[in-house]
Amino acid sequence: MQAPPATPSMARNKRDAIYRILAQMKQDGINISDLEACRSHGASSTTSDMEDACSAQSDSSPSLLASPVSLDDSPLPRGQSLPKRSRKRTRATMDSDDETGSVQSTSVQLKARRSLAHDFASHSPSDEVLGSQDEGKDDENDSEGPSTARVPLSTAAEDVQASLASSISIDMDEVELVDTFMRLIFPSDDLAASAKRSRYRFDVRQAIQYQVRKLQSARTGGRWRRDIDPSPNGDMPEIIAGGVTQNGKTLIKVLAIVVGHLLGVSSIIVSTTRSGTSSLSNKIERYLLRDLHPKLQPTIKHICELDARKHGPEPMCNFLRKHGCLFINDTARQLYNASHTIQSARSCAHLGEDFPCQLILDEADSYYRNSSDPIQLEKALADLHQQVKPVLRWSVSATLIPVFLHLKDKKFGLDSDSIIYTQPDHTYVGVRDFKPLQIDGKNQFLMPKDLKPANLYSNHLTDEVIRQAVDKPCSLTLVITNPRVDAANNVFELARRIQNSYPRVAALIVVGRGRFYMPPPQPRLPEDSIAPPPAYVIRRMDVSALIEAIDGHVGLETPLVVLGYSQMIRGDTFRSNRRVPTHIICALGRAMSIEKMVQAMGRASYQDSKLEDNGFQHVTVLTYPQDFDSAQAYPQWLAEMQQKLQEGMGISEATSRLATYSDRANVIFRQNKPIGQRNDNLRLETSFEDPEPGCERPGRKFLDRLHAEDPVLQTLRAIAIENRETSETFKQELVDYNYKGTGMTAKEFADAYNERIGEGSRHVTVQAITCKLGKLVDNGVLERSKGRRVQPTRYWIASKELLQPSTAYRSSLGSSRLGMLS
């Protein structure tokens, strides 16, 4: 009987099946190029092979799939739905899955994978698509650049590692222990030793020494201490690790896990979001597989796989006995489950068994709070500390100022020898290399309230960034402006608006429920290319792999725009092997901390720059002026603090008024975003130098020029300076957060303003003055209290640095206006 002719829907189904299996192969570390030998053995991608492969894929076990087969299982943007026939078909497929389960034989699965891989390799424009992407991606804050083939450990190197591991003991001498670990991690017989060393962008020996010293300090009488105080003022041993964004901090965690594992200490990693935790665990597992003898690799599990409420305490007990690495999402439920499970496992341990754990806080600045009304996550994390009693705590982040401010008064367990920094190399492109958008030779910035839901969080400046990006091939634009997903004027509508204006642009939307790929309406498709399925959420692939797949689908010549909000702040690397971010639009609200803003801007930073190869000189940024200055100042502040610590200054002194930093490190100038969590009321008290004349930062120059063009803003600023408290009282009130009586009300400003301009001029109303004062608050010149019925809102100069106008501000004023500032 003749088979029915192929239809477009059948082709789409086969394409989707191919894509899902290739995605899973990518996650399994299988390179398509490794399967090219199939051709020499007579493997051919015939129609019957494809049909067998697709049928095998639909009946295979769920572990074979990169995402659920059921398209209606995945949430779609509001207003979109699958056709009724498609929904019936997918439900039938699900029923078939339930009946057959995972009974497919290994040979059938291999046949399916080889057939599909051969078909993809013969039709796609490059074998790199979804190939060895694993080897090129380093960290949620890191990326190594182009993928390189793995050089496996030689048998001699593995034998050396096994021999050294058997001789390691926590009670050995510190120097001997560090030397042993160095020989184990970098075996002399390892063919890739030099390449491996280059990936570690920090002092490996020093990091091992810090960890060994801290772990040995947590022992007494040959046993692990159980009386360690985890409070901010307690004696828990601490290590703080950081550096610029996208610069190899995953390897710090890998090193901590390996050293702890071989010293008999399990690791607990708490990371942000489910997708971020999954991505981090995959990256760490790839490094362990590449660099360590298989018998020495710690087991990696998620708390859901070892939860005592589901499986009993035995799995966790066996896991802790093997000194594995446990991953936990940053949710209260996950943390409570971990505490309960570990406690249950310890209760059924053998006599004399001890299960010490070290806690690694990924993106640590988001966990430190002093709020009097803690949220459930904070309570769960405190419970984990009390129940598990870690012997060492790691705080890892690219934005460490809140961590330092919380731990600055810690008397035990933390010193200047507890800090590890990664160092970028010459190929690194960071926020300090970014340039603001320019129009007619002038820097352009967003202003508060420029982007609103009514205009889809876009204006003429955002349109100009998109226009400049799509004019060149290989561009990658990150748009972090629209927080709406289901409400009107959401991120999907913004993506459609961009594609309506530029139909050759591809769009990728990153939101909490998944990633949505929107192919260009008028594409320049490579011939016979395979597209990622646009109709459902792609959950298990990280963003870098998706961008790699999109490059293979539409080619590097097609501009790509990635849109999102909260899911683009931390966790993912937005680049492929050949495409890197070239433009970024970042407009986070005032509720977001400085740290989240810096992390969001850091999504456009990366190692192994491809900018010049793709025809770009720098990353173009459109953001708020004070955010641009703060983002560039943040890594400078950390670098100057590290220098002060090396010179002998303590952490407490380096974060006090006694420490003076350069103007280039001033992260708080005119900044209306908080440091750390808003309810913490953290304040950075360090002093900052005045900028040298003519060397003011771009955001400050822009705001000074803007204020100089508005005589009302100039007058109000002068009035605020004249009517401040005495300098010492002013500074003391800012430190004590005692704003009662500080500054002036809007009515007092209006009276002073009308008195200054004289009776011959038209008086300004209190409402108009309030609007102008709001602009000064938005631009960081003034701060204001929370208005109440019995106590109206008061306004005052935001920082002592603003008491004396800068040279740029003075030069932007005309001679007739300069007298107002005298």
Structure description:
The chain is of the alpha/beta class. It has 5 domains: 8-123, no CATH class; 155-191 and 202-421, P-loop containing nucleotide triphosphate hydrolases (Rossmann fold); 431-623, Rossmann fold, CATH 3.40.50; 632-684, no CATH class; 698-821, Arc Repressor Mutant, subunit A. Helices cover 40% and strands 10% of the residues. The protein has 29 helices and 22 strands. Strand 16, helix 20 (594-601) and strand 17 form a beta-alpha-beta unit. The protein is globular. 47% of the residues are buried. Mean pLDDT is 77; it is low at 32-150 and 813-822.
Give the topology.
Layout: H1 8-27, H2 37-40, H3 47-59, H4 84-100, H5 106-123, H6 155-166, H7 174-185, H8 193-199, H9 204-217, E1 219-220, E2 223-224, E3 238-242, H10 250-262, E4 266-271, H11 274-291, E5 300-302, H12 308-311, H13 314-321, E6 325-329, H14 332-347, E7 357-362, H15 376-388, E8 392-396, H16 401-407, E9 419-421, E10 435-439, E11 442-444, H17 460-470, E12 476-480, H18 491-501, E13 506-511, E14 514-518, H19 543-554, E15 560-564, E16 583-586, H20 594-601, E17 620-622, H21 625-646, H22 651-654, E18 660-661, E19 687-688, H23 698-708, H24 711-722, H25 727-736, E20 744-745, H26 746-757, H27 766-778, E21 782-784, E22 794-797, H28 807-812, H29 815-818
Parallel strand pairs: 3-8, 3-9, 4-6, 4-7, 5-6, 7-8, 10-17, 12-15, 12-16, 13-15, 16-17, 18-19
Antiparallel strand pairs: 1-2, 10-11, 13-14, 20-22, 21-22
